[in-house]
């Protein structure tokens, strides 16, 4: 059974302590230039991890990813004239 996972972006003051982020979830990406890390963890533990991370001295701020809540399947609503134009060529 798969668990639902959600990402969070952790903005850091310095990258020296970036290894300490491993205990909060899977570290997916660390940007050296912009000083942030993307971490994935279980959705059930997200709030607890965000509270712990924001209390650490080397963390500027923590933002959750909203990707699980965004609708990824779109419906196309074409009017009859455009639908006819698309079918003419075939």
Supply the key terms:
cytoplasm, 90 residues, elongated, 2 helices, UPF0298 protein BPUM_1393, alpha+beta, 4 strands, DUF2129, Alpha-Beta Plaits
In short:
It is built from 2 helices and 4 strands; from the N terminus they run βββαβα. The chain has 90 residues and is of the alpha+beta class. The mean pLDDT is 88.
**Largest sheet geometry:** 4 strands, antiparallel
* CATH architecture heading: 2-Layer Sandwich
Which regions are unreliable across 5 or more consecutive residues at pLDDT < 50? none
H/E element sequence: EEEHEH
Number of helices: 2
Summed up, the domain count is: 1
CATH hierarchy class name: Alpha Beta
Q: In which range does the helix fraction lie?
A: 10-25%
Q: Reading side by side through the largest sheet, how are the strands ordered?
A: 2-3-1-4
The secondary-structure class comes to alpha+beta
Described by its quaternary structure, the protein is single chain
Q: Could you say which overall geometry the principal axes of the C-alpha atoms support?
A: elongated
What's the number of extended β-strand segments?
A: 4
Cα Rg = 20 Å
